[in-house]
Structure to design on (856 residues):
């Protein structure tokens, strides 16, 4: 892939990526901070996500409600996301209006107020957000699986945080978190779209370079020890449908095995799209759809892993057929995993996974927002070169690689099997 | 990746190719060479309006079964053709019409169109696939029964459109899905799926005339003498009072709330004024006035906004919020107060100006992807807006006055005639 972007480091440590795309009169600007639920301690879980909410609550220059009004008035969209490893803010605007987004992001990198009354009203908004999640059986199950999979590493809690902490975190905790992690030397800026790089860089320097660097933010070094054996758990809740999550230890995105595992994922569960904007494709011809849905063990199956800094999980999610027991579905899943471990896949299957990835890249490239997203996102867990060479690395995967990673990562002793048992009208159906 | 091109101009009669084939199919196409992909998207005149009350969900069942096997290919063969090249294609049913949508790398457009033609014209509804699908649909209904948002929407529609086809759930009920036979599916397909009133948009890295020729090749010779016209739709009864309904779902942490009434249809003259009014009420910024009062000030909900559901035949105008069960009364009170104030006084000058700027400013972003352009083309066709609609759009938006916004708010929102629906513990 030809280099079609530039990378700069400002004197305060802020990394800036610029990519000119003149296909539509739009610019998308993203600011990424290396902070997420991975950086949270017990008692302060959910603080990164809450801090993200507070970033919409105003600075002296842009008071609370004026921010969203200003962006919307110019026909822009903006949003923010908090993940385990990072927090990001973006605006996609008509190109003539992008200066507002740059000013706003520079301003809230240092000047957010975190007023007590705003913290107070936002507490119940976030509690409500969590209550909405709790209405979903898959959230309840996923949270239990994550807790079971990690005893030491902070990946053990959900990004939204534990309810107990959402009621006790205080304004000063939030402000301290903001001041610790929201420093230019802990941030990456990625701008893509209809602009000229030279004046864009000059403007970014003007707005951001005066923000002083901070001390390098602290990091928790709590490596998860190896799992001593298979963990199984049940969650009970309302409904008539049984769900399962089967989660295996998965390496960090920067690990060389990530690409062979991506091919494996594509064959087994259907290709996962890492695009945040652009969507994916169906999985009806994947091995698991054929073996589990077509054979009526489950009515739906999916699988996938995120790209993370530290090793996390590859999770299969199953919605059980009403006449099947969890043990039957798990046995059928195991047969397919074993097949990958014992029989080498063909080169044609790998070529097919590569073509699927190429198509997903093409769909993602329709969106300027998605293109800017990738420059920053890939820097969070590896670097932009990881993205630029993604298709090449997939194409280089061999049948032996797929077999090797299937054997290395998909062992029962390294998994958590979680089952959601529906209580229906009060009776628990046991598997 | 993306090539350097001059800024895109808005789609209009100069760049949109529109052609009606001899069998009644309308093709709309526009080129976009910025990405090597293509999208097809469209609708056809089959939907739940054709269903009897004891067969609710039939249109949905039929549509979901179209990709389950054709006269020439099994479901696995159809999906193998699609997925092996990273393409996607699927159907979705609606009330008045049903839709299809697919995308592929542009070199694979003929394959995508062949799959559309084959599954739309010659589906076989294989018995084993149909039974498997039935179980999947029943599971979806079991999940719907547990979903507070789905159930609040369902009882809202049921109450607002009492004894009217638009008050029925398109996905049916467990007992109706259980009763549908293979013969029902085949018969429903025979009398509702045909080329008349079918519209397809093709947008991507292909010349529009070439795209139209490919559609002609796949669908141009299709006829269906059995295709029935859409049934007539009875008038919607106006609300005479406030109807409050709660649907209990035990064990949930949050209650979903929908409060609203009848709104304009998409093709009504006052639609655009209502759309701007809705923006002020519950969209602009972080959810307009509703978001400001319910979320930002009171901290009662993670989401709170208003929504205009302007269809071809009927429209709704409603406010949705997800709140803690103990705050339902408080949130309802705040929303009713905002609705009353809005019905009485409408928008301020600056509020209207903000929303007008937003509507005009966001146009380029909405047209950035092939999917966005295809959606805009289908909207213009379905609602008879004219191919120059996007080019006239800024003027149309600017021309709306405060008086017009006030008039639509007063006309549609009557705080003494509303449906208040909720689902939760």
């Amino acid at each position: 892939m030809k280099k079609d972007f530039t990378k700069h480091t400002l004197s305060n440590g802020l990394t800036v990526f610029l990519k000119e795309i003149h296909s539509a009169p739009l610019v998308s600007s993203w600011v990424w901070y290396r902070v997420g639920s991975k950086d949270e301690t017990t008692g302060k879980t959910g603080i990164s996500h809450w801090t993200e909410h507070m970033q919409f609550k105003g600075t002296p220059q842009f008071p609370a409600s004026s921010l969203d009004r200003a962006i919307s008035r110019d026909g822009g969209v903006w949003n923010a996301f908090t993940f385990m490893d990072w927090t990001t803010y973006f605006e996609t605007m008509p190109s003539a209006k992008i200066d507002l987004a740059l000013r706003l992001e520079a301003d809230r990198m240092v000047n957010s107020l975190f007023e007590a009354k705003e913290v107070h009203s936002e507490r119940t908004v976030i509690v409500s957000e969590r209550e909405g999640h709790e209405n979903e059986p898959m959230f309840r199950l996923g949270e239990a699986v994550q807790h079971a999979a990690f005893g030491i590493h902070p990946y053990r809690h959900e990004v939204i945080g534990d309810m107990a902490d959402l009621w006790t975190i205080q304004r000063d905790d939030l402000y301290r978190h903001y001041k610790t992690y929201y420093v230019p030397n802990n941030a990456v800026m990625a701008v893509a779209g209809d602009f000229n790089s030279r004046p864009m860089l000059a403007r970014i320097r003007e707005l951001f370079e005066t923000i002083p660097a901070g001390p390098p933010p602290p990091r928790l070094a709590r490596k998860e020890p190896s799992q001593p054996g298979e963990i199984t758990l049940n969650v009970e809740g309302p409904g008539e449908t049984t769900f399962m999550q089967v989660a295996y230890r998965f390496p960090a995105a920067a690990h060389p095995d990530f690409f062979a595992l991506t091919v494996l994922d594509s064959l087994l569960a259907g290709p996962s799209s890492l695009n945040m904007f652009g969507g994916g494709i169906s999985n009806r011809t994947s091995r698991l759809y054929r073996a589990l849905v077509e054979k009526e063990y489950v009515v739906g199956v999916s699988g996938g892993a995120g790209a993370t800094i530290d090793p996390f999980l590859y999770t299969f999610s199953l919605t059980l057929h009403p006449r099947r027991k969890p043990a039957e579905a798990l046995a059928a899943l195991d047969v397919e995993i074993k097949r990958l471990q014992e029989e080498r896949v063909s080169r044609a299957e790998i070529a097919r996974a590569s073509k699927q990835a190429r198509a997903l890249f093409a769909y993602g490239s329709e969106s300027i927002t998605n293109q800017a997203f990738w420059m920053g996102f890939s820097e969070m867990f590896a670097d932009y070169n990881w993205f630029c060479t993604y298709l090449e690395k997939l194409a280089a995967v061999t049948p032996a690689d797929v077999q090797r990673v299937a054997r290395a990562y998909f062992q029962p002793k390294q998994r958590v099997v979680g089952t959601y048992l529906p209580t229906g009208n009060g009776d628990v159906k046991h598997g | 990746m993306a090539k350097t091109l001059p800024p895109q101009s808005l789609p209009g009669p100069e760049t949109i190719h529109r052609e009606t084939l001899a069998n009644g199919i309308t093709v709309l196409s526009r080129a976009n060479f910025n990405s090597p992909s293509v999208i097809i998207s469209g609708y056809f005149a089959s939907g739940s309006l054709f269903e009897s009350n004891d067969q609710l969900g039939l249109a949905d069942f039929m549509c979901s079964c179209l990709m389950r096997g054709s006269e020439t290919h099994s479901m696995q063969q159809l999906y193998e053709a699609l997925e092996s090249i990273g393409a996607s294609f699927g159907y979705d049913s609606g009330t008045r019409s049903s839709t299809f949508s697919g995308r592929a790398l542009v070199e694979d457009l003929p394959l995508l169109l062949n799959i559309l033609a084959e599954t739309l014209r010659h589906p076989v509804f294989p018995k084993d696939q149909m039974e498997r699908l039935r179980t999947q649909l029943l599971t979806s209904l079991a999940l719907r029964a547990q979903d507070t948002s789905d159930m609040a929407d369902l009882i809202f529609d049921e109450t607002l459109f009492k004894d009217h086809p638009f008050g029925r759930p398109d996905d049916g009920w467990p007992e109706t899905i259980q009763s549908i036979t293979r013969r029902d599916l085949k018969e429903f397909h025979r009398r509702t799926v045909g080329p008349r009133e079918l519209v397809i948009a093709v947008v991507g890295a292909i010349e529009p005339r070439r795209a139209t020729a490919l559609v002609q090749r796949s669908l141009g010779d299709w006829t269906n003498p059995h295709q029935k016209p859409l049934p007539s739709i009875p008038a919607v009864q106006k609300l005479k009072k406030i109807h409050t309904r709660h649907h209990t779902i035990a064990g949930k942490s949050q209650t979903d709330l929908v409060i609203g009434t009848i709104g304009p249809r998409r093709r009504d003259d006052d639609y655009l004024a209502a759309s701007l009014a809705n923006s002020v009420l519950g969209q602009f910024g972080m959810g307009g006035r509703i978001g400001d009062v319910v979320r930002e000030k009171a901290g009662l909900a993670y989401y709170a906004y208003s929504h205009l559901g302007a269809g071809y035949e009927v429209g709704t105008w409603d406010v949705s919020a997800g709140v803690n069960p103990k705050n339902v009364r408080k949130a309802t009170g705040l929303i009713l107060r905002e609705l009353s104030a809005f019905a009485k006084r409408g928008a301020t000058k600056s509020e209207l100006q903000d929303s007008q700027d937003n509507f005009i400013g966001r146009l380029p972003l909405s047209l950035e992807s092939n999917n966005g352009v295809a959606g805009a083309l289908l909207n213009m066709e379905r609602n008879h807006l004219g191919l120059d609609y996007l080019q006239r759009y800024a003027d149309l938006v600017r021309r709306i006055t405060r008086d017009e916004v006030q008039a639509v708010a007063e006309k549609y929102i009557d705080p003494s005639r509303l449906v208040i629906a909720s689902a939760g513990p």
